[in-house]
Design a protein that fits this description.
single chain, alpha/beta, six-stranded parallel sheet, 18 helices, globular
């Protein structure tokens, strides 16, 4: 298949959040399976990793219309970076005013204009490619990501000129976080400012554009929608998780599904990771992993006790991650004199920092902190800790749990979003399962789960089997790519691409 991604950020060129990593790894995994994957994204002033790499101008002085008559326009260029055997080709939309002269990627008062421009620029570039005939590149599927690219779907579906040419292509949307819907506080906006999502998109420079909910429009107009986990696709159909979009999501639930993100198993690999004390595999973890635990205890100034159960929290210090539950539970666990040690890593809410510091001062032999973001330390923690704590209030994806499993750290999670899809409770009788979980947003449910995990930990043969189960899990991007591949094929079929579908299926069968 020829697959086009449209995204506001793509690693390694720009990396603000998890979206950029998905663009990088998913495109690579799809390319590995034989597909022609290309990405369309802005060329920011802060775009990096282009030094010494040749960019080719493939669309010069592209006129992107501002008004309805297309008589006034912004001038853009499209630069092309050819990929290699592993990495996708990338098209960069170039515009000095809205991208190159900005010091950051997001956070501007005119972000709605900047990303509507991204979509309009992509459409105009595609129309030029169509005019080239066989010399142009034309996608079988267009995959838009988050609110920034949702303008593309709305524009194509509601503009006759665009729909006539692009209407046969499946327009698909993945929502990585429903909190972000555009450059306006839609959830708390006055009723008179609510966007029904049905009117034509306002002109680029119109004040009305900011009040139009890009994500809502993408949801209504997309041919199919995914979230980043199957459970989260169900959760967002409730008031608690829908972020003010409940009516819209209920209306489109027939085209909504969830596909769990993966991890790069080459990058996150305990057999080759030079950042950890002792590299290990499923065959050698019993002998070698304890060295990593001792190194972790030493680095965090905790007593080096092999038999103490070492629990760790890795991530932002926010209420969303269930920090208040952990802080409430921890003194009771330590007062019970269980053989437990706790490590906390991450920056965030100052109130949580103060409370954790007080706990550390009260239990210095059991609690240690590094209350700053750190991009290398998590792997050391995953490679040495016994349990990774994720008592999240909501968690659409759950990437930390995947990384922990890869290194043999057992996740203990609240059953929500991707965590519910990733973790199955360990059954000591059958020796099956890869972690522990609890249901309620309740400190005592978390307390019970930790005590239950500690009980299993004290039975060494059972615990080693549980760690082995963790190391056996496969959450690679290769597996994720197959799911997206099937999603694309279904939507090509639904749009009437029968002959194309047949030829693609033959190619995939040959690959398999």
């Amino acid at each position: 298949m020829k697959i086009l991604f449209i995204s506001a950020e793509v690693a390694p060129f720009v990396s603000v959040g998890g979206l950029s990593q998905v663009m990088f790894f998913l495109s690579r995994a799809l390319k590995k399976r034989g597909h022609d994957v290309r990405i369309f994204t802005p060329l920011y002033g802060v775009t990096k990793s282009l030094e010494g790499r040749k960019l080719k101008t493939v669309a010069e002085k592209l006129q992107v219309g501002i008004d309805g008559d297309e008589k006034s326009f912004l001038v853009c260029n499209v630069k092309y970076l050819r990929g290699d055997a592993k990495n996708a080709d990338v098209y960069f939309l170039e515009n000095k005013e809205y991208y190159e002269l900005r010091a950051n990627v997001f956070g501007y008062a005119d972000d709605h204009i900047r990303f509507a421009l991204l979509s309009k620029g992509c459409i105009e570039w595609l129309l030029r490619e169509k005019e080239k005939g066989e010399d142009g590149w034309w996608p079988d599927v267009i995959h838009c990501h988050d609110w920034h690219a949702s303008y593309f779907i709305d524009l194509v579906k509601k503009t006759d000129r665009y729909n006539k040419i692009l209407g046969r292509i499946p327009l698909l949307l993945t929502v990585h976080n429903f909190k972000f819907q555009g450059n306006w506080d839609f959830k708390f906006a006055a009723k008179e400012h609510h966007d029904d999502g049905l009117s034509p998109l306002a002109l680029l420079t119109s004040p009305e554009l900011q009040k139009q909910n890009a994500l809502k429009r993408g949801l209504l107009s997309a041919d199919a929608i995914t979230t980043v986990s199957p459970t989260h696709a169900i959760e967002v159909l409730t008031p608690e998780y829908s972020e003010g979009l409940l009516e819209t999501l209920l209306a489109v639930r027939g085209k909504l599904s969830g596909i769990l993100n993966g991890i790069d198993t080459d990058e996150f690999n305990p057999e080759t990771d030079l950042s950890i004390k002792k590299r290990f595999s499923k065959k050698t973890f019993v002998k070698l992993r304890p060295f990593n635990k001792a190194e972790l205890q030493r680095e965090f100034s905790l007593p080096i006790k092999p038999n103490s159960c070492l629990l760790a929290y890795v991530g932002r210090l926010t209420a969303q991650k269930g920090l208040d539950l952990l802080i409430e539970v921890l003194p009771h666990l330590l007062d019970a004199q269980l053989e437990l040690q706790f490590i906390f890593l991450g920056g965030g809410d100052e109130a949580f920092k103060i409370q954790l510091t007080q706990l550390r001062d009260k239990f210095p032999e059991h609690v240690s902190l590094h209350l700053l973001p750190d991009f290398l330390m998590p792997r050391k923690i995953f490679a040495g800790a016994d349990i990774i704590l994720m008592p999240s209030i909501f968690e659409p994806g759950g990437i930390v749990a995947l990384e922990a499993l890869r290194y043999g750290a057992v996740p203990l999670v609240r059953k929500t979003g991707g965590l519910k899809d990733i973790i199955s409770d360990f059954d000591p009788a059958k020796a099956k399962g890869n972690g522990f979980s609890f249901n309620k947003k309740n400190a005592w449910d978390l307390y019970g789960a930790i005590v239950g995990a500690w009980t299993i930990y004290k039975q060494k043969s059972l615990w080693l089997k549980l760690v082995e189960n963790c190391l056996d899990e496969d959450f690679s991007w290769d597996h994720v790519a197959r799911e997206y591949e099937n999603w694309y094929l279904r939507n090509i079929h639904n749009k009437g691409g029968g002959n194309k579908l047949s030829s693609i299926l033959k190619s995939i069968l040959n690959l398999k």
